[in-house]
Amino acid sequence: MRLSRSLAPVTVAAALVLCAPYDAVSHARVDASAAPFGAECRTRVQGSHVVADCHNPYADTDRVRLHVECARWWDLDTDGAPVEAGPAETVRLTGRCWMEVGRAWVSHEKA
Asked: What highest taxon heads this organism's lineage (predicted)?
């Protein structure tokens, strides 16, 4: 059986790639010095109030900040002050709108 002319180069190229030595295969680069970072935050919205509890299980201090976007156009959105969550520390962040909360999130920054 004979391969068609258009399929033969593809077959040869695939065979060469599959037969390449292990060292020739590219690998994703991982920065070994980068330690895991970032507190885990759980955000709750109840009416016009927002509460975020952030726990930092890592060795580096995480500076967390609560952002609240209000649903009404005339209601002021707020960006809370940054709070440092040290290693194995839990912090509580609070915010509110006059009426309904549109969305709320927590930002992270290395201290």
From this structure: Bacteria
Say if residues 74 and 49 touch (Cβ distance below 8 Å). Answer: no
Q: Say if pTM beats, i.e. exceeds, 0.85.
A: no
Q: What is the pLDDT of residues 45-97, one digit of tens each?
A: 999 999 999 999 999 999 999 999 999 999 999 999 999 999 999 999 999 99
Beta bridge partners of 54: 41, 91
Residue 23, classed as helix, strand or coil, is helix
φ, ψ of residue 57 in degrees (nearest 5): -85, 0
Residue 107: closest CA among 70, 59, 57, 52: 52
Percent above pLDDT 70 for the chain = 70
Going 93 to 97 to 101 to 105, the CA torsion angle's sign is negative
